[in-house]
Specification:
Layout lengths: L4 E8 L6 E6 L2 E6 L7 E5 L2 E6 L1 H13 L2 H12 L4
Antiparallel strand pairs: 1-2, 1-4, 2-3, 4-5
Length: 84
């Protein structure tokens, strides 16, 4: 199962304006943000899909944490993947 998961942008990469370091429930990695710039984004397979606000991010994270193993599997896949 592939999920769109909320991630918080914690660092814009100055040498790569298309990439940002994000935090997804403690997992930190680079994500392609294209033209999106905001504090919270919805991520799917390494790409920012849309901007979301903190309230929307919290609601999505609460839901995802509630589905259990599928979310744990998605975080594991996110941690193992790389975009550089």
């Amino acid at each position: 199962m592939c999920l769109g998961i909320p991630g918080e942008i914690i660092e814009l990469l100055p040498d790569r304006p298309d990439l940002a370091k994000v935090d997804v429930s403690g997992v930190k990695r680079s994500i392609n943000i294209g033209l999106l710039e905001n504090d919270w984004i919805l991520i799917h397979v390494g790409f920012a899909l849309s901007k979301i606000d903190e309230r929307e991010a919290k609601a999505a994270l609460d839901f995802l944490e509630g589905i259990g193993q599928a979310y744990a599997d998605e975080l594991a896949a996110l941690q193992e993947s790389k975009i550089e």
